[in-house]
Every structure is written in C-alpha cells, then in structure tokens.
Amino acid sequence: ECTLTATLQTVHMRDIRKLDKMFSTSNEPSITVRQQAILVNCDPVRAVIMRDCCFVFLPDGTDSLIAHLKSNFKLHIADASAFEFAYNHTIYALEAILATICCIFSTQCKQVIPLGRPALEKMTKDESMSELESLRSIKNSMSVLESQLGGMRRLLMTLLENEADLHMMYLTKLCEDPKLAQDLFYIDTEDVESILELYLQEIYSSQTRVALMAQNIVNTESIVMLKLDSKRNFLLSVDLSLTLLGTLIAMPTFIVGAFGMNLNSHIQDTEYVFWVVFALCGLFILVGYVVVVKYLKQQGINMSWTY
C-alpha cells in the first residue's frame, strides 16, 4: 500500500506577495496550498481561504464582482451545509471563487465573440482597411482572453495532478487530526477532484469557443489579404501594360518629331511617304506589344487586364 508523507509548509511572506500584482513576477494564475491556508491568485480575484474564514481581494473598478462572489458563496456554502459536508467548507469556498472566475470568462466571451461575427461578415463583403483594423482589435482582445483561459486551464490541470495539494486542501480535517498530515492518503479527495474537473471542462469549453473564433478571424484575414494581393497584382499588370505601350509609342514619336522639324529633307515631297511611315509606326507598336506580351507570358507574367 502506497503512503504519502508530506511536510506541510506554512504561509511565507513570498506567498502573500504573490497576491499583489506589483510584486508578482508573472500574470500566470496560481493556487498555492499551505498549512491551514489556500492562496488563490486568479486575476482579478485574489483570495486567502482558511478553515473558518475567507478573505477576498478585488482591484479597483471591479465592484460588480462583489454581487457574484456573494451569491456564489451563499449558494455553495449552503450546498455544503445541506449535504452535511462539514469538512468541505474550504473546498466549497474555493468552488465559489472558481465559479466567479468562470462567470467572468463566460461574460467576456459573450461580449467579444458577438463582435467578431459581424466583423467577419463585413470583411467577406468589403475589404476596406477600416474593417480590417477593427477585426484586428477584436483579435487582440480574443488573444488576451485565450491566454487567460489557457493559464487557468494549466493551473487546474497541474493542481489535479498534485496529489499532496489535493489532500492538503482539507484544512478542517488536518486541523482536527494533525496525524493525517503524516499519511494524506487517508483523506478522500473525490469531491475536490470532481469540482476541479467540472470547472476545468467549463474553462476548456470557453477556450475552445474563443480559439475557434480567433481561427476564423485568422482565416478571414488570410482571405482578405489574398484578395488585396490579387488586386495589387492586377494594378501592377495594368501599370506594366501601359508602361510598355508608352515605351513603344515613344520611338515612333521620335520619328514623327524628326519629320516635324523645320528642316527640308525633300522626303515630304515623295508620294505616299506619310502613309508608309504612319503604317510602319503603327505596325511597330502593335508587333512590339504582342512580342513582349508573349515573351512575358512564357516567363510566367500574365499581362491580361481581366480581373
């Protein structure tokens, strides 16, 4: 039979400093289990859960979360009391915080995703740069949300794999019977695992929705950029055609200009010379254009004006 012996670490000042954004080295969410305390750092909710109380810290401008926290605490603590889970009050306090965080993510998804769908529809019809910039702004918001969801998912998965922390979450049991700390496997962690797996699925569901919309935005951006590239190539083709015509016309223009000088060459007295020169100039332009276009086509450059 496998037994797990663990030394319960007390709360250190560095653990408290992790709850302060100014002293935190990263924005990665964390749940730290210490002796008779669970420290939750999941922006914007930061909390210290103990066996008989819970302290929640919220940043400025998040007063709307207070109502959600109160309702979730009342709901989950009432459930714990109704089912006579006397030892699980700390677990259900953690569940109330996780429920609030999932509610925050769900609200953000409901706000961001509906903005992306109309933008995608507009982009498929109108490739204007204003819509493209709007879509990029929405994409940035989704990237931030996806990063937060990914961090929360990694946190819950890591916590589920940490057997010692799962057993140490039962603060009341460990306080009433300290000998359990010497063999934590005597504590059944089925309920806390079920709670963490439940919210892990919710986080994964929200992350999938955001990732799908973000991928749709990336695909739409790629299609729009392909359309813009096609238009640019078409304009370059037209510009090249006009430049070629201008170059071919320049040479007959020189000849015409030479005949137009106030110099007497007596050529103008010869019959049909004007028509011969005019025909040769026109033929030169036509043949030169056809030859150059055919050569460029052989090189893989299409000079067609068809878009």
From TrEMBL:
Its main location: membrane. GO terms for cellular component: mitochondrial inner membrane. It comes from the Eukaryota. It is a multi-pass membrane protein. GO terms for molecular function: magnesium ion transmembrane transporter activity. It is found in: Membrane; Mitochondrion inner membrane. Pfam families: MRS2-like. Keywords: Ion transport, Magnesium, Membrane, Mitochondrion, Mitochondrion inner membrane, Transit peptide, Transmembrane, Transmembrane helix, Transport. Gene3D superfamilies: 2.40.128.330, Magnesium transport protein CorA, transmembrane region. The chain crosses the membrane at residues 234-260, 272-296. Belongs to the CorA metal ion transporter (MIT) (TC 1.A.35) family. This is Magnesium transporter. It comes from Aphanomyces astaci (Crayfish plague agent). The lineage of its organism: Eukaryota, Sar, Stramenopiles, Oomycota, Saprolegniomycetes.
